[in-house]
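Homework help board

Subject: predicted structure for assignment chain

Our instructor gave us this sequence and asked us to write out the predicted structure in token form, then describe one feature. I got the tokens but I'm not sure how to describe them. Can anyone check?
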Amino acid sequence: SVVIQECYVQNTAREYAKLYAAEAEPLEGFGEVPEIIPIFLIHRPANNIPYATVEEELVGEFVKYSVKDGKEVNFLRRDSEAGQKCCTFQHWVYEKTNGNLLVTDLQGVGMKLTDVGIATLAKGYKGFKGNCSFSFIEQFRALHQCNEYCEMLGLKSLRTTHQKQRKATSMKSKNLPNSSTVKKMVPKKAREPRDFISLEH
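My token output:
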């Protein structure tokens, strides 16, 4: 069920956010840490829709803090404290899971977040499979710009590792005959719009 999956994803992300807070809060000057609110699953056997979720209502301006795709540049993400700390949280999770998992769609009111997603590599991570496309992890790696909070946590810049990987892959593709390089690129192009459409709902 989609509802059960949503519950599972948000509460998994919430556990990562608690670990992040435990590491970030004691740091001098870090300040308040974003929190992912809990989401509860209710079973209603007599109802047509037997499962529903309940969560705290967030009152105030609802903001999307993390990128859904490369074209969406949100100044609130770059300029607000909550937005920067959300990007640092993404970087922290990415590093903690060795690039296997990323918390995406960070959105909410101030430091309280809800309706988040998780992207994992195709094989999943420690038995957990995310509900977002793997391409989100690639986008994050390419687009993330470290901020002062990343520095406070001592996170490694993704720029250098990403460039090294790009060089390695471009060298590999030069050795391949043209036809197989073209074949490799086609499925990726075809996949992107579909991922994007399904995530808009």
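Reply (TA_rk): Your tokens look well-formed. For the description, you could write something like this. The chain has one domain: 2-153. That's the kind of observation they're looking for.
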